[in-house]
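Morning, I've got a small favour to ask if you have a moment. Here's the protein in full, and shout if anything looks odd to you:
***
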Amino acid sequence: MFFERHEGGERAILVHLEGEDPEAREDPQEFQELALSAGADLVALVNVPRHRPSAKFLIGTGKVDELHDLVKAEQADLVIFNHVLTPSQERNLERVFECRVLDRTGLILDIFAQRARTHEGKLQVELAQLDHMSTRLVRGWTHLERQKGGIGLRGPGETQLETDRRLLRVRIRQIKRRLEKVRSQREQARRGRRRADIPAVSLVGYTNAGKSTLFNALTESEVYAADQLFATLDPTLRRLQLDDLGPVVLADTVGFIRHLPHKLVEAFRATLEESSNADLLLHVIDAHEPEREQQIEQVMAVLNEIGADELPILEVYNKLDLLEGVEPQIQRDGDGKPQRVWLSARDGSGLGLLRQAIAELLGDDLFIGTLCLPQSLGRLRAQFFALGVVQSEGHDEQGGSLLAVRLPRIELNRLVSREGWQPSEFLEQHTLQ
């Protein structure tokens, strides 16, 4: 609407800045993957050593002239910087290159715009784009003066730029109101799951770590999964049945990336809350990635930003099929709790270990014992069988059922309370452990 988005297939020159600050340094390989994911046709990658950024161009004037000649020689349509540009820097560079200039944030926003499928996802992307482009509106209107007056309409009037900024603010308010409704609907759904005592498990991790492939393997779904950055934007929830635990809700969420634009974190807050409200986070890690430690740090930084860094986390080292000499396994901490699982979502090796680890972490308070149910509690007996938690059944002298069960204690208490019993009293009188 008010913002521009380049079409896929444009001839693009990539500009990567090599600074001394390790915190601000970007990965050139990841930069190229981002550009390819956006659909760009890469014609050149230019490395620019820059220790003190220029306020006018970000890079030195010598490099600007060199890039200008390269743009003309390659007939490039687009120059993409692996860095955040200010609006004035973007305008100055476009004036020199005589083609479009995009920074890292704009590139990621463009990928998100291509990937969004649901109405909610499109709203979130549009909000982030409008917020990002609001400071860049002047680029399209620097040639305009005041609106035409005419007889009876002369006066200071309102510039086209002011008009668009006002309309843009109105649109942003509309989107935020719609997303607030989505947020309240998600919260209502989460309250319903909490009332049903269904644990929530959320997949988080760096983009292209294999979250959607793992999600499909666990839930037998067909969520879109591809070897590209940000293949998944819209969250997907599925019910997963675990032995010894029962049903859990598994959520597949958007992947994180180094220096994820803050505007995206804000825009996708309704989606990311699926992670911040989970009972357990599965941090999916690409075990084959040489820079996996840096990626882990970036994921933890985003989790901290959305308030999810204190939640229980199980590390899942994926893509084991690309490693040699490493077997599927569960690694435990000093208390014997599962800490990380090594597996391959692609060939399915280690998935059973992951299910076991999830059940252990969510079923810390697991009840294993025998319940003595009188004949009057036949409905309760049927509910235990319906949940699939009965290991075996016998009968006492009075004809009551002796059920050997294995289930979370919270689920046991919920079922017993429905029959009008106090859980502790019921267990004391009718449970043999």
About this structure: The first strand starts at residue 11 and ends at 18.
